[in-house]
């Protein structure tokens, strides 16, 4: 990765963030509802008092003025105060973000390692019954709505069998190691859901990557040398598949963090997804803008990290 490419990529990332933040600012301000309405109290409150409340939140200024104030404050690291929590939005997000990362990263990484083994195995058995079954299974799961599968698991393992808690992140009465165990117990069902949804499609992607690698000349040479299938798979196919696979992993984690609303709503998991939903319902402009900005930056950084990892694991990839 050359210096000129790095500089060009940083400029593109900054411009992308600027344009995305601008568009999100306009769209968020287009949402119905008055964010200051919750503070009015009595509907008979005089209009003068209502205007004073709006002025406190800066909502009395023209939209273009609000935009430049937001951009200026954002450059200084000040993303405003949440109308809902009446706290700095950065602090609110930093409380919720680790929970979402915990919810999404663990099953995604686990599904990657399982898919890596399954995908390369069925690639070596292309066209056989196992290959056809896995493709059918993956396409079938991709057509199943995530919320429907999650609700089935909640009903079956949580309600009828009483194996997992139905909702929440931990038992508030527990502390110390007991709380850690409680967190893992509550997280198990969301993890299982995300693993079931993500692993088969991940395996098919690994299979397709492995099939491309199996067509390379060095694989033909390895077979001609008499290397066993296990050695070819481990030393040549897996090693060359890691680059694009890590790219898929980083992008998938970024996508899950940004789109965690559904799974967190079903399992009452108080992470970024529920935070975005609360901010949207309450017209909490500062909080909603900050969560959108965080998601945008996360996706852009994930794209950049994917390029770096692919170049690091695959010497054939050169960015100029």
UniProtKB/TrEMBL annotation:
Chain ranges passing through the membrane: 12-31, 99-124, 136-163, 183-204, 242-267, 287-306
Similarity section: Belongs to the binding-protein-dependent transport system permease family.
Superkingdom in the source lineage: Bacteria
GO annotation, biological process: transmembrane transport
Organism: Mesotoga infera
GO cellular component, one term: plasma membrane
Name of the featured protein: Binding-protein-dependent transport systems inner membrane component
Entry-linked Gene3D superfamilies: MetI-like
Keyword tags: Cell membrane, Membrane, Transmembrane, Transmembrane helix, Transport
Subcellular location: Cell membrane
PROSITE patterns, alphabetized: ABC_TM1
The ABC transmembrane type-1 domain, residue ranges: 97-306
SUPFAM superfamilies: MetI-like (SSF161098)
Annotated membrane topology: Multi-pass membrane protein
Keyword Ligase appears in the UniProt entry: no
């Amino acid at each position: 990765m050359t210096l000129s490419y790095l500089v060009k990529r940083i400029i593109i990332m900054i411009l992308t963030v600027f344009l995305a933040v601008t568009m999100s600012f306009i769209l968020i301000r287009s949402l119905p509802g008055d964010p200051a309405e919750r503070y009015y109290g009595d509907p008979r409150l005089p209009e003068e008092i209502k205007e004073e409340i709006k002025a406190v939140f800066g909502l009395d200024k023209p939209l273009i003025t609000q935009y430049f104030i937001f951009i200026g404050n954002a450059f200084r690291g000040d993303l405003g105060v949440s109308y809902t929590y009446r706290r700095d939005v950065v602090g609110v997000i930093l409380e919720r973000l680790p929970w979402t990362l915990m919810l999404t990263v663990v099953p995604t990484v686990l599904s990657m390692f399982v898919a890596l083994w399954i995908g390369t195995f069925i690639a070596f058995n292309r066209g056989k019954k196992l290959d056809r079954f896995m493709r059918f299974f993956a396409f079938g799961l991709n057509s199943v709505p995530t919320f429907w599968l999650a609700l089935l698991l909640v009903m079956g393992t949580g309600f009828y069998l009483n194996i997992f808690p139905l909702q929440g992140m931990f038992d508030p009465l527990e502390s110390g190691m007991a709380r850690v165990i409680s967190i893992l117990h509550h997280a198990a069902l969301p993890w299982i859901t995300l693993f079931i949804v993500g692993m088969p499609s991940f395996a098919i992607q690994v299979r397709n990557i492995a099939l491309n690698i199996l067509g390379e000349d060095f694989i033909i040479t390895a077979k001609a040398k008499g290397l066993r299938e296990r050695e070819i798979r481990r030393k040549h196919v897996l090693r060359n598949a890691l680059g694009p696979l890590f790219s898929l992993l980083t992008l998938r984690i970024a996508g899950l963090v940004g789109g965690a609303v559904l799974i967190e709503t079903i399992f009452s998991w108080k992470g970024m997804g529920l935070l975005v939903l609360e901010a949207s319902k309450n017209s909490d402009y500062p909080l909603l803008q900050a969560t959108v900005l965080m998601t945008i930056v996360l996706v852009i950084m994930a794209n950049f990290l994917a390029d770096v990892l692919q170049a690091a694991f695959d010497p054939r990839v050169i960015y100029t």
